[in-house]
């Protein structure tokens, strides 16, 4: 029985970490939307701000769902899908920054280094799903 408790405890800690990250990012979509607008792939129809706000709402909702034990398993699955779905926006941001003469070399390195960080977010979400 102790193994189950350890697994659930680790899963809960991972869920709370993801919830904090998603909640903070979601709030930033409303506090400082312009950087997020710039990440929206231009191929999408409509206004970038609509996507910025919609993804902010989604992130806040995911944070709440991960924090609540009753909805954690389902929300963790949705979070993994969400992290895959927003990856094109991260790629768009990297492309834009790499093409820009206004972006410093350090920023270009940072935006490229950020791309593979999506993988741990996805795997952490799947871990929470498994342990919930």
Structure, described:
The structure is a single chain. This protein is mostly helical. The protein has helices at residues 2-31, 33-39, 48-67, 72-85, 87-99, 105-114, 118-131. The longest helix has 30 residues, at 2-31. It starts with a helix and ends with a helix.
Which keywords apply here?
132 residues; mainly alpha; 7 helices; globular; disordered N terminus
Helix-strand blueprint:
Layout: H1 2-31, H2 33-39, H3 48-67, H4 72-85, H5 87-99, H6 105-114, H7 118-131
Helix pairs in contact: 1-3, 1-7, 2-3, 3-4, 4-7, 5-6
Helix content: over 70%
Largest sheet: none
Radius of gyration: 16 Å
Order of helices and strands: HHHHHHH
The parts where pLDDT drops under 50 for at least 5 residues are 1-6
Count of runs of 4 or more consecutive helical residues: 7
Question: What would a concise description of this structure say?
Answer:
Helices cover 82% and strands 0% of the residues. By secondary structure, the chain is an all-alpha fold.
């Amino acid at each position: 029985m102790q193994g189950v408790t350890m697994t659930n405890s680790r899963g809960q800690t991972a869920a709370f970490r993801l919830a904090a990250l998603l909640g903070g990012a979601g709030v930033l979509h409303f506090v400082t939307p312009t950087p997020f607008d710039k990440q929206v792939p231009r191929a999408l129809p409509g206004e970038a701000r609509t996507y910025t706000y919609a993804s902010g709402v989604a992130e806040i909702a995911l944070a709440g769902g991960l924090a609540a034990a009753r909805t954690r398993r389902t929300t963790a699955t949705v979070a993994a899908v969400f992290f895959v779905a927003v990856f094109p926006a991260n790629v768009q941001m990297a492309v834009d920054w790499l093409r820009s003469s206004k972006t410093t070399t350090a920023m270009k390195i940072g935006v490229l280094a950020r791309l593979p960080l999506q993988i741990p977010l996805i795997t952490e979400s799947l871990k929470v799903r498994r342990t919930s």
